[in-house]
Design goal:
- The protein has a domain of 133 residues: Tetratricopeptide repeat domain (Serine Threonine Protein Phosphatase 5, Tetratricopeptide repeat, Alpha Horseshoe), CATH 1.25.40.10.
- Helices cover 61% and strands 1% of the residues.
- The chain has a two-stranded antiparallel ribbon.
- Helix 7 runs antiparallel to helix 8, helix 7 packs parallel to helix 9 and helix 11 packs parallel to helix 13.
- The longest helix is centred in the last third of the chain and has 23 residues.
């Protein structure tokens, strides 16, 4: 419809409303994230604008209706004053979602203003996300997804100033990630703040200088050289020999390191399954967490850990893992099933019904899923009857 409008009519869209509620607010309270993205990024809607009816912003609408993904998007596109207001009103600064805390989200978009505010309110600069590790690692990883190195570096500096541990390996250190991603200025800064260049990559066993050499980045090898201890595999410790060593490593079978990781992950999975069989769900959750450090994109591990969290009553953690599982494998029935189970424990019966329905669509003959689907329906009916008088 918009594409058929002339420029004059398009300009009026931002002021259009439905009973005093702006289009952006309507999309926000319905959780229509793609529509919101179109309004903001394509049509230039002001995310801070309030509606005519009560002055509510899109963020207010999304928050009121519990649309977490929408809130995350809107916070990432502004709202520094709103962040201050939420925090001053008692909002939990380190509340976690699938991709980490608000601090993880802020650094992933390079929102230094929001990062400063969160750190001023004592956000934990060393909190760990199940997907990308600590906030520093998130800032460095995000350069692979469009974040400018300069923005990443500013976030890293703020985090270090707030006490972030630059040598914490989750699973790898900040210097390993910066070198792998070819971030020259970040490498220089991390060395300035005494990041240890001798801690190797957990997967390949290579130090940052070897990683730089394997990519043929002579400038990075030269930057790292004065700070790095000699590696036994390099007979003559010179820049030239290190680069030659890196070139020879590139010619080695690429599957060798991956094979070792897969073997270790398979062993941990087996240990986790044995722990589940003896109903040691807490122990199994720890084992699956260790396995996830080797592969953050294994949907089965998230599903298995979700089950463990559910069994020990950690419903919110179970839900986060289930949602991550669904994100990684949307056509896998088990992820939706796990999500429904967690939502039932959280008494989010309507959402649980929707999750079980998604699972049943993928496996229509599954009697267990049909059973829990109707349990969700009955729970919804009971809740409605209990609250009917109030409504």
């Amino acid at each position: 419809m918009v594409s058929r409008m002339d420029e004059k009519d398009r300009a009026k869209l931002a002021d259009m409303n439905i009973d005093g509620i702006g289009l952006l607010q309507v999309a926000a309270h319905m959780g229509k994230i793609e529509v919101i993205r179109y309004f903001v990024e394509e049509l230039g809607f002001d995310v801070d604008a309030g509606s005519l009816c009560g002055g509510s912003t899109a963020l207010g609408s999304a928050t009121l209706f519990g649309e977490v993904d929408t809130v995350r998007y809107l916070l990432a596109h502004g709202y520094e004053e709103v962040v201050r207001l939420l925090l001053s009103s008692g909002a939990r600064v380190d509340i976690a979602v699938a991709y980490g805390t608000p601090l993880h989200i802020a650094v992933s978009y390079g929102k230094t203003g929001a990062v400063k505010i969160l750190l001023d309110h004592h956000a934990d600069p060393n909190s760990t996300s199940g997907v990308l590790g600590t906030p520093i690692l998130t800032a460095l990883h995000s350069t692979k997804h469009g974040l400018a190195e300069s923005d990443s570096l500013e976030c890293v500096k703020l985090l270090v100033k707030a006490g972030a541990d630059v040598n914490y390996a989750c699973p790898n250190t900040s210097l390993v990630i910066a070198t792998t991603n070819g971030l020259t200025d970040c490498i220089k800064y991390l060395l300035e703040v005494h990041t240890d260049p001798n801690i190797p990559d957990k997967q390949s066993g290579r130090t940052p200088i070897e990683i730089a050499a394997s990519f043929g980045r002579r400038d990075h090898v030269e930057i790292l050289f004065p700070f790095t201890s000699p590696v036994k595999a390099v007979i003559n410790w010179t820049v030239e020999e290190i680069i030659a060593h890196g070139k020879s490593r590139r010619s080695m079978p690429k599957d060798e390191a991956r094979s070792k990781i897969n073997d270790k992950k398979a062993k941990l999975k087996s240990l986790g399954e044995k722990a589940v069989k003896r109903k040691d769900y807490f122990g199994a959750s720890k084992i699956y967490s260790e396995a996830l450090e080797l592969d953050y994109f294994d949907a089965t591990l998230y599903s298995n850990r979700s089950l463990c969290y559910l069994q020990i009553g950690e419903a919110q953690k179970a839900l986060l893992d289930a949602q991550r599982c669904v994100e990684l494998r949307p056509d896998w029935v088990k992820g939706h099933y796990r999500e429904g189970g967690a939502l039932m424990l959280l008494k989010e019966h309507k959402k649980a019904f929707e999750a079980f329905l998604n699972a049943l669509k993928l496996d229509p003959a599954n009697e267990e899923i049909e059973k829990v689907l109707w349990e969700a329906v009955e729970a919804m009916k009971k809740h409605h009857l209990e609250t009917k008088g109030f409504k």
